[in-house]
User: Fold this.
Amino acid sequence: GAVVSQHPSRVICKSGTSVKIECRSLDFQATTMFWYRQFPKKSLMLMATSNEGSKATYEQGVEKDKFLINHASLTLSTLTVTSAHPEDSSFYICSARAGSIGNTIYFGEGSWLTVV
Amino acid sequence: GENVEQHPSTLSVQEGDSAVIKCTYSDSASNYFPWYKQELGKGPQLIIDIRSNVGEKKDQRIAVTLNKTAKHFSLHITETQPEDSAVYFCAASIGAPGGGNKLTFGTGTQLKVEL
Assistant:
């Protein structure tokens, strides 16, 4: 299957700082990527849909100024958690839609964020 | 919006037995139904998917069935092995397979295959 790479896999940051998570589609182009948040033993919660070359579409209740999403190329989307707080600590997962592979959606390995 | 329900939340089977996980969806316009396996601390891995123009799909020990009338779909794993132990998520989306349309996930099933 197609490969989606996420980096970093784990990151610890101090409260008040910002942290960026990258999501790359390695062997296909993705005009659409999705960012999820997952709490322990819970399902995936969609945060936003990232569209290449345009603004992201955020789900209700997700602060767009806090979770900045940039999709500057067909293979890279980034999520920046700004002014991080301990309650932002979570597992963040991206996925990418592979238009060349039947529009199948593939997920990255996830990024563990801990805010101290 | 779409709502996906998944049962059971936990499932324990003996090695070699079959496991069945069931999902229902609410929006009759949904036409793409993938299943993902998630191991602890990792991202979900696509294991099989089915589109609404097909009633059943099989890939080795894994099969998925879809009943559009009843709006439910199921994952079947035969000859289970310990490495099948993980959390399984069903999902549904509207439009072309994932075609710009977001996936709505079920709540997950923790499958444990015991020796």
Observations:
- Chain B touches chain A at residues 32, 34, 36, 41-46, 49, 89, 96-100, 102-103, 105-108 (CB under 8 Å).
- The mean pLDDT of chain B is 92.
